[in-house]
Amino acid sequence: MGVRSAATKLHIPPSAAARRPTTVLPLVAVFLLCSASYLVGVWQHGGFAASPSQQSPAVSIAAAVACTSTPKRTTKNKASSSARPLDLSAAAGSSSSAKRYPACGIKYSEYTPCEDVERSLRYPRDRLVYRERHCPSSERERLRCLVPAPPGYRTPFPWPASRDVAWFANVPHKELTVEKAVQNWIRVDGDKLRFPGGGTMFPNGADAYIDDIAKLVPLHDGSIRTALDTGCGVASWGAYLLSRDILAMSLAPRDSHEAQVQFALERGVPAMIGVLASKRLPYPARAFDMAHCSRCLIPWQLYDGAYLMEVDRVLRPGGYWILSGPPINWNKYWKGWERTREDLRAEQQAIEAVAASLCWTKLKEAGDIAVWQKPYSHANCDSKETRFCSSKTSDPDAAWYHSMEPCVTPLPEATGGAVSKWPQRLTAVPPRVSRGAVKGVTARSFAQDTELWRRRVRHYRKVIAHKGRYRNVLDMNARLGGFAAALAAAGDPLWVMNMVPTVDGNRTTLGAIYERGLIGSYQDWCEGMSTYPRTYDLVHADSVFTLYDNRCDMDVILLEMDRILRPEGTAIIRDDVDMLVKVKSAADGMRWDSQIVDHDDGPLVREKILLVVKTYWTAQDQDH
């Protein structure tokens, strides 16, 4: 089972010691028998398993798990009289008897459970509802197999090289290289894909385009850290913002521009599958310092301005909205856009009217770029067209399958406020915490949580090979974002997608995560995540299986973890030892190499850590 026993000293009372025979032969015999039993047990349960590949460092184990009755940890890490003993009965079956999960067919190599193209055709096309999340509605629709990597799959290039190049075999699509050839999005170069950094509205490259934006918006003083890019293409805007310490959530639907989000993640750029349609985006209110649309073709002026109202909901007070492409600068481009002057003029006037109804201020329109700013307060908003939400009936943070609301959250009633500039905001107490809006969290407990995760991350560095291996990181139960903050403070070239499970009633933690200058989303782990297969190098799951116990089958979550984890990627699973034994029993049938190790505070803590490496295999190997 990969559970190793630790040497334990036996306490022998003096009376017993006096009765011991003087010969040492019985002790030698016992020692030899114990040693033989230990070696046979380790051999049977994969204790000496090799690395899945010589190309990637194996997970190294720093501590063994004590197979003695261990108490729960108290606040001082002392034994508790109410602690229950370890229950390893679930581990009775070895990996050889574990359920083996078959490989899915090659046609599922890019399967996205909740954005399945065939299933989407059942839903209305009005307002692009069919491109929203639609997960399997029955057990019959749910895949119970391992999604294969395409033939020839290779380990992605490390950052920062990955920003500009990827292996074609990993994302074997040429559609965009043809459709967007003149716009410099992407091109095929032998066995590689090249990303020149171009875009429809930035023919001189993303860097030059961002320089133009910086003349209108303060990008260099740390006041802008989080950004939302709607209709992101291959996410070059977000990719080039990273060098300026700005973290963009790049968003695009799974549509005719096949695999654009997959390209983004393969480049090592934060991205999710998503669309502005009828439901709110899965982010809290006041999350982003800046939102952007570059020829994203979203009809901002339609549906009573619902899409701009949604942007207003997720923008922080004083946040910026940047628009380039139709209809901006229509007088120059109307012929190339194959539209009439009158049509484009009317569209821009309608957008301006919606922005005014939100009490936004248009800062400037320069060349191909227009910028609006959301107010810091609605106290001076005198627009007769503004439709404010009722604070009694509307929750601005409700965003999981929540329909868009045609109203604006009044800022004086909104919990939040000014955040520190980056990088100070990473460890500063978030306004939601300081104002008591996060249940059970105080400034003191926030500081304690920050220090706790610093210590845990230091422990992770001791037990897994990490240097240069991880770029895209997923935290499945982020809470206050302490894990991501600890990684960011360490300065490694990686980013973390912080997921807040919807089954946990305290949704406000995701808002606090954004106030720290980090990004994330709501998620129900009984459903698939809005991402492509093989998009994360490291998956972190803290108490996820206890949280979802009796909510859905354990293997539903494990199969989703396998889908989104790259070949030779790593998973760190923290949970109670009884739960981890069950998880490992299931994981042994999933082409994972795994090992249970001690908690960072030592063997006298019931919580343990399951370290996992997903083995390398592709669709070519699925029958082997």
From TrEMBL:
Q: How does it sit in the membrane?
A: Single-pass type II membrane protein
Q: What is its EC number?
A: 2.1.1.-
Output the SUPFAM superfamilies linked to this UniProt entry.
Answer: S-adenosyl-L-methionine-dependent methyltransferases (SSF53335)
Q: Which residues form the signal peptide?
A: none
InterPro entries for the chain:
Put_SAM_MeTrfase, SAM-dependent_MTases_sf
Question: Keywords of this protein's UniProt record, alphabetized?
Answer: Glycoprotein, Membrane, Methyltransferase, Signal-anchor, Transferase, Transmembrane, Transmembrane helix
* UniProt-recorded name of the protein: Methyltransferase
Tell me if Secreted is a UniProt keyword of this record: no
What is the enzyme's class at the highest EC level? transferase
Q: Where are the transmembrane segments?
A: 24-43
State the Pfam families in the record. Answer: Methyltransf_29
UniProt cross-references to Gene3D superfamilies, sorted A to Z: Vaccinia Virus protein VP39
Would you identify the family this protein belongs to, as annotated? Answer: Belongs to the methyltransferase superfamily.
Q: Which GO terms describe its molecular function?
A: methyltransferase activity
Task: Name one cellular component (GO) term.
Answer: endoplasmic reticulum membrane
State the compartments where it is located: Endoplasmic reticulum membrane; Membrane
Cell division as a keyword of this entry, yes or no, is no
**GO BP terms:** methylation
